Amino acid sequence: AEKPPKPIERAIFTDAARDVAADGSSIPSRSQTGGWRQAVWTRAEAARELTACVAEIWSDPKTAEMVGAMQFDKDDRICMRFVAAASALRSHVFSIPVQSFHDAKGIAGNIIPAIATTNAIVAGLQVLEALKIMKEKVAARNGNRKPRSLRETNRYVWVNRSPASGNKYIVPSILEERDHDCYVCSPDGRQSVYIDIGATTLGDFVERILKARLGIIEPNIMMVDSLVYEEGDGCDTSLRKNLEKTLAELPGCTVANGGGMTVSDYRQDLDVRVLLFHKADWDEEAYPDRFFVGETLPEGTPTATTTGANGKSHEGDGEEEAGGVEVLAEGRKRSREEAGSSNGASDRVAKRKA
Question: Which residues form the Ubiquitin/SUMO-activating enzyme ubiquitin-like domain (predicted)?
Answer without folding.
Answer: 193-282
